[in-house]
């Protein structure tokens, strides 16, 4: 492999220069390892849960499961968002039984013995006993808090109540590329849930490479010619400088000639997001992600947010939300199925690949896979996993 240098003396080639062992194969199905990851990686990172407009109404709430942890998020009457473990401090009952709903008052009331908590701060307001015994103070029994943040119209939680959401830190790749997408005002036009018979890490590994693209995604590689080369970035090949400055999308990236967005026919139907710059449009797709649970894809006429929820060691639920400008969603000449069908097609193709991968990982002699040069993001992911579970 060549080791060519850019004019500033750095080698900007992205690829791995030596074969790297993957994670132990058992980590993709062993229940103990899965439990370890849920207690570490999933409790020490910000997690996307839903769009802010799903909790617009005062006293509306939603519950979410993060492994065996059940979290309730409430919009208090002062507009603030508050997240708590959905568990009563008396003897532990779940507080909110439904996945979503509207509180009848400013109190979260336990359905078991009716202890009541303030929805805006989790303080225990009253018990149901005649008297309070010696050694008991309501102040000692507030709900367990969970950190909660709103970022550009989306809600995130962190199981460490002291965590602070810092945009510069939270995303794997900076969300700076999304600055021109009006995420705050975009609205959900379509939501799709699906379950994949694979470990959550299997999903991320597939997401972070394109070696599979030509054989798994024939429609996508036709739309994004760079992907026919099994790479996600022009600098993923050692001789990338030979094509530097090329306007051919096969080398430059972006859409095929005449392609505008990730849709079945490549058309944006005259509804590209007006705030996007020519560079944003030419790039064709913009991604950012937060491991372990979300990626956001930005396209010239829509945004897609995909959230992961591990149901078990070998089952992962995906929730995909397609966001549009309100005027696009309401336009008679815009059919969202053009982008929704295409997005689903690509995700279903990936799901099939992930399930095949997952099945094969059980081969008794397989200790681990091996990473090839183009899989440099997987190497970063594996390092993040290894560091995070210890
Ligand atoms: S468990 Fe909630 S009031 Fe008893
Ligand atoms: Fe894929």
How do the strands and helices of this protein lay out in sequence?
Blueprint: E1 20-24, H1 31-39, E2 47-51, E3 60-66, E4 69-75, E5 81-85, E6 100-102, E7 107-109, E8 116-118, E9 124-126, E10 145-151, E11 154-158, H2 167-170, E12 187-196, H3 200-207, H4 213-216, H5 218-223, H6 249-252, H7 278-283, E13 286-290, E14 294-299, E15 302-312, E16 315-324, H8 326-329, H9 337-360, E17 368-371, H10 376-389
Antiparallel strand pairs: 1-17, 2-11, 3-4, 3-6, 4-5, 5-10, 7-8, 8-9, 10-11, 12-16, 13-14, 14-15, 15-16
Helix pairs in contact: 3-9
This protein binds FE2/S2 (inorganic) cluster and fe (ii) ion (FE2).
FE2/S2 (inorganic) cluster (FES) binds next to loops.
Protein model, in words:
The chain is of the alpha+beta class. It folds into two domains: 20-43 and 176-389, Naphthalene 1,2-dioxygenase Alpha Subunit, Chain A, domain 1; 47-164, Rieske Iron-sulfur Protein (3-layer Sandwich), CATH 2.102.10. 21% of the residues lie in helices and 25% in strands. It has ten helices and 17 strands. The chain has helices at residues 31-39, 167-170, 200-207, 213-216, 218-223, 249-252, 278-283, 326-329, 337-360, 376-389, and strands at residues 20-24, 47-51, 60-66, 69-75, 81-85, 100-102, 107-109, 116-118, 124-126, 145-151, 154-158, 187-196, 286-290, 294-299, 302-312, 315-324, 368-371. The strands form four sheets. Strands 2-11-10-5-4-3-6 form a seven-stranded antiparallel sheet, with no helix packed on it. It has a five-stranded antiparallel sheet with strand order 12-16-15-14-13. A hairpin with a 2-residue loop joins strand 14 (294-299) and strand 15. Helix 3 crosses helix 9. The chain is globular, with a radius of gyration of 23 Å. FE2/S2 (inorganic) cluster is lined by residues 88, 90-93, 110, 112-115.
